[in-house]
Design goal:
- The chain is 33% helix and 26% strand.
- The strands form two sheets. Strands 1, 2, 3, 4, 5, 6, 7 and 8 form an eight-stranded mixed β-sheet that branches. A two-stranded antiparallel sheet has the order 9-10.
- A hairpin with a 2-residue loop joins strand 9 and strand 10.
Length: 223
């Protein structure tokens, strides 16, 4: 079983257990919806939306003129999100099946991207941040909860499937995270992380902005 299959298996099982027990599913490491200002009419994308908790919370804040997409690669999670949407009676939400490395949305179609402890699970984080940049509108915001590594993670942990699916082995160090966002084109990057004593990884909140085009000045446009 490869890493992607192991992640799908773990989170598929979690979704089935949540559906069978009729209990809320929380697998995140933060609360991105509480850390960012969402406005009525905005379009939001949740990367790795799971059972849809953050999607439904965001849908309330953007209102009926807004739209929230939840993206997940696991069939069971997409089904759970849609069932939770049905129970909540929310209509401005759409759950999509796909990967965060290849987002099934058009260029410049999203105002805000959120995510809750998912990007660390990807083995191609460069693709994730480039795709996030692509689908954001100019001036759009990237605002995610994730884990960051506190120093080098030992090779035996990096190579452990259990450590990957447990949101440890795939964590980036803060400078690496910042560098990948900069390489994708993001600006105004802020990383706020907790620092528990002795922990290999720590929870963090990462903000970044897709720069808006420069306004025209005089006879030539400043770009």
């Amino acid at each position: 079983m490869d890493l992607k299959q192991a992640i799908q298996k773990k989170y598929g099982e979690a979704a089935r257990q949540a559906a069978a027990c009729c209990t809320p599913l929380s697998l995140g490491c933060g609360n991105p919806t509480a850390r960012i200002d969402l406005q009525p009419g905005q379009t939001v994308l949740d990367l790795g939306s799971g059972g849809g908790v953050d999607v439904l919370l965001s849908a309330t804040r953007v209102g009926p003129t807004g739209k929230v997409y939840g993206l997940d690669m696991t069939d069971e999670m997409v089904a759970l999100g849609r069932e939770n949407q049905r129970k909540a009676g929310v209509t401005n939400v759409e759950f999509l099946k796909g990967t965060i490395e290849s987002i099934p949305l058009p260029d410049c179609s999203v105002d805000v991207i959120i995510s809750n402890c998912v990007i660390n699970l990807s083995t191609d984080k460069d693709a994730v941040v480039h795709e996030a940049f692509r689908v954001l509108k100019p001036g759009g915001r990237f605002a995610v909860s994730d884990v960051i590594a506190r120093g080098a993670i030992p090779p035996e942990i990096r190579e452990s499937v259990d450590a990957w699916t447990g949101c440890v082995a795939g964590a980036l160090e803060e400078d690496d995270y910042r560098g990948k966002l900069m390489a994708a084109g993001f600006a105004t990057i802020e990383i706020e992380g907790s620092d528990p004593s002795g922990a290999i990884v720590a929870n963090a909140f990462i903000r970044a902005t897709k720069p808006a085009p420069q306004p025209c000045c005089g006879s030539d446009c400043c770009r």
